[in-house]
Design goal:
The complex is a heterodimer. By secondary structure, chain A is α+β, with helices and mostly antiparallel strands. In chain A, about 70% of the residues lie in helices and about 10% in strands. Chain A is built from three helices and six strands; from the N terminus they run E-E-E-E-H-H-E-E-H. Chain A is rod-shaped, with a radius of gyration of 26 Å. By secondary structure, chain B is mostly helical.
Chain lengths: ~140, ~625
């Protein structure tokens, strides 16, 4: 009998004929470590690319504040310097656009993981049927 | 005593208690008590997270900081909001998918040892207490302004237990209310209350902005007016300090103030000096020095608060610290899915972003309006001024509210200040109680406890932490910390951010995004982050109280107002280096990885319709 692994909430992993630590099953839905790893790498690239842009912009503000006199001293609109305008208004717009774009892309990657795993769930089921058929064949012989 | 304000605060308290009693009927399990049954929708959760996040420091402090410092004060607003980008990019969905109760659960589940769980619990308690202390201090101080009277008997020196009875009454009232509302309502009650409290705060700020715009506010031209000439600041000094020459310039603060103060105000100061008590304090209006550039300090330019080093370290402390606040991170478990966790954070950015856009606007408007009203003779008389400028910038919000909308608007703002404290303290009590009740009691002391007993232990923990919060509120006043740090609330909140950023963020970032992170690596990083940040804070306190000097290595570290720039990279590097050397990742790392980054569970729940929200209250207790 194949060993089973309790993952969470009483859901059982590893009831398929292959390595139990390589996939998790929740009802009809399966994640395999290969598919999770594949999507994880893209997710990590996405998060760290956005993170790099976020930290670059966020740290450029104090950098300009320290080393670029035009940024903090020249009035560009009424009493607004570029520094004041960015920190008090534009920075928030930057955050909203980044957060929305990131969330949309990350959600899309999650969906891709679902599609990949739907195909793999089918493959696992075919493997199970084949294994059962082989067992039955053995009994008949 | 302000009757309208007290009636509105009482109404807020009544709503809070009613909601707690109402939601108690729906709290049956520990999941209900600590996580509101994981059924909180994105927008509701975003409102609750925002309420949890916006403390008295945000509500009263940000506008006050802009009023006093101009651009350097605006940085608080931007930094507080920016922190949620780190949460959405690196932490939100992974933490939710892990599907537990607390940050300590994550560290245990990811690294599989009790050692890391207990270190995480210790760090959660440290951050929570550092965050809770200034909230309690704010409660006492606000009560003193609002009510002005206490119910404790005063001794001959006018004190009770060594502190002002009115102050201690405020601390006691808030501690008792919080104890009741969190213990009775649990996370469901706290969530409902935080939603209402956030919207109260947001609307209070919005009404101030609406009054300002209705009164002819024009952002660009008002900013130009405020930036016309050198920034003036009010400094409250002892007579000894006011009459001691600065070694660099050879001038005393009193001599400097002569150029900017009205003759009659100076005469009043001189009269106090002539009375002969060197320990008496006087308020002087003096031109602000620029710590960053060799130019005069102007409202719309940087340099009033931060030198070059602090410009970077302050923003890093705020941006990274948000992702290290346990009461905020715990809220992510209440989302129904990882996708909902991301959406929640996006909405948080919208909600607090709009709040933080409004706060600096109010600060700027207040600087001009209060000055004008002072010389018209129509400024409120219950605030202290020096030639048209508020002696304490934290008084900006209530003073401006009185000017713009009379006692009614003052009541709304005062109730908003209490709402900010209630919502934040509520979140901190839940985080502290879950650290002890869930992470220690349920896991080590009595793992077989029934759901009823677990909830009961959670409630006892809330009561204990409420008493501890009361003690902290009393101790801050008793020890006179406010005299050492004039902006004590903002300072202590920043310390909590620094400890969270240095302790949790390296562990979370590496634990979520790098399979090679080992338990030893994570533990080393957490210990370095925790000890490093707490150590530097202690050195800073010792330096401010003149126990240690300002020279040498100890003097350098003691001078770091925001330790994050040193402690965060140190903790992160230590985690990575020790993990590389150690190389012992958990045997079941693939299972852990599928749990953090997989979506099978969510797809399954979606298929069964279990991801549906709108059932925050769930079912009644049978």
């Amino acid at each position: 009998m194949e060993p089973t692994v309790e993952i969470q909430g009483g859901v059982v992993a590893g009831d398929a004929p292959n390595d139990p630590s390589r996939h998790t099953r929740h009802g009809d839905h399966v994640d395999t470590i290969e598919s999770v790893d594949r999507v994880f790498l893209r997710q990590r690239r996405l998060s760290f690319s956005f993170g790099a842009v976020f930290f670059a912009v966020t740290l450029l503000i104090p950098a300009f504040t320290v080393w670029w006199p035009w940024w903090w001293s020249v009035k560009i609109w009424g009493g607004f310097t570029a520094n004041y305008l960015f920190v008090s208004l534009l920075y928030f717009v930057f955050l909203w656009v980044m957060a929305w774009t990131y969330a949309a892309r990350a959600d899309k990657l999650d969906s891709e993981l679902g599609w990949i795993n739907a195909e793999q769930a089918q493959e696992l089921e075919i493997e199970q049927i084949r294994a059962t058929a082989a067992e039955l064949e053995g009994e008949t012989i | 005593m302000n009757t309208t304000a007290i009636v509105l605060v009482a109404a807020l308290v009544a709503i809070t208690i009613s909601l707690s009693i109402f939601s108690q009927r729906f709290t049956r399990t520990t999941s209900d008590f600590y996580l509101a049954g994981r059924k909180v929708g994105s927008f509701t959760n975003a409102s609750a997270i925002s309420g949890d996040y916006l403390s008295a420091a945000s509500f009263l402090g940000v506008a006050g900081a802009v009023y006093a410092s101009g651009l350097d004060g605006v940085w608080y607003a931007a930094g507080f909001a920016g922190g949620f980008m780190v949460v959405v990019l690196f932490i939100a969905s992974a933490l939710r998918r892990f599907g537990e109760y607390t940050v300590a659960d994550f560290s245990f589940g990811r690294f599989r040892t009790s050692r890391i769980r207990l270190i995480t619990v210790l760090a959660v308690l440290m951050v929570s207490l550092f965050y809770m202390a200034p909230q309690m201090y704010g409660a006492g101080a606000t009560w003193k302004i609002l009510v002005g009277k206490g119910f404790f008997p005063a001794n001959e020196a006018g004190l009770f237990l060594g502190v002002d009875p009115a102050y201690l009454s405020g601390v006691t009232v808030v501690a008792v209310i919080m104890m009741f509302y969190v213990a009775v309502g649990g996370m469901k009650g706290t969530t409902l209350n935080q939603v209402i409290q956030f919207w109260w705060l947001w609307l209070a700020m919005f009404i101030l902005v609406a009054f300002a715009v209705g009164g002819g506010f024009n952002y660009a031209s008002n900013l130009r007016t405020a930036s016309d000439g050198q920034l003036l600041e009010v400094k409250t000094l002892t007579i000894e300090q006011a009459t001691t020459p600065n070694p660099a310039t050879g001038k005393t603060p009193l001599e400097v103030a002569k150029a900017s103060m009205k003759p009659e105000s100076l005469a009043a100061v001189q009269e106090t000096i002539d009375a002969g008590d060197a320990t008496v304090k006087v308020s002087l209006l003096i031109p602000a020095a620029n710590k960053l550039h060799e130019t005069k300090q102007v409202f719309n330019q940087p340099g009033h608060r931060y030198n070059a080093f602090d410009q970077f370290s302050m923003v890093l402390a705020l941006v990274l610290g948000t992702a290290g606040l346990p009461h905020i991170l715990n809220r992510y478990y209440t989302n129904p899915s990882g996708k909902a966790a991301r959406r929640s954070t996006f909405w948080v950015l919208i909600l607090i972003g709009t709040f933080y856009i409004m706060a600096p606007l109010v600060g700027l408007f207040g600087r001009l309006e209060i000055f004008t009203r002072y010389f018209e003779g129509t400024a409120p008389t219950n605030a202290t001024y020096v030639d048209g400028y508020l002696a304490k910038s934290d008084a900006l919000m209530p003073t401006l509210a009185q000017i713009l909308g009379g006692q009614g608007l003052l009541g709304i703002v005062a109730a908003g200040a209490f709402a900010a404290m209630f919502s934040t303290i509520g979140g901190l009590l839940i985080a502290s109680a879950s650290a002890v009740g869930h992470d220690v009691y349920e896991k080590y002391i009595n793992p077989n406890a029934s759901q009823r007993r677990r909830v009961w232990v959670g409630k006892i923990s809330v009561i204990c932490f409420s008493l501890l919060a009361w003690f902290l509120g009393w101790w801050i006043a008793y020890a006179g910390l406010a005299n050492v740090y004039p902006a004590l609330i903002a300072m202590m909140v920043t310390w909590a951010f620094a400890i969270g950023a240095s302790t949790f963020v390296p562990m979370l970032l590496t634990g979520i995004w790098w399979k090679g992170t080992t338990e030893r690596g994570a533990v080393t990083g957490m210990i370095i982050g925790l000890l490093g940040s707490v150590g530097i804070i202690v050195l800073n306190v010792l330096q401010q109280t003149e126990v240690i000097g300002k020279t040498g290595v100890v003097g350098f570290f003691g001078a770091l107002t925001f330790p994050v720039l040193v402690t965060f990279p140190l903790a992160l590097i230590a985690t990575i280096v020790v993990s590389k050397i150690d190389g012992k990742v958990p045997d079941n790392i693939d299972s852990i990885w599928m749990r953090i980054h997989g979506t099978a569970s969510e797809r399954h729940e979606k298929q069964l319709g279990l991801d549906k929200i709108g059932s925050l209250l769930g079912t009644k207790k049978s």
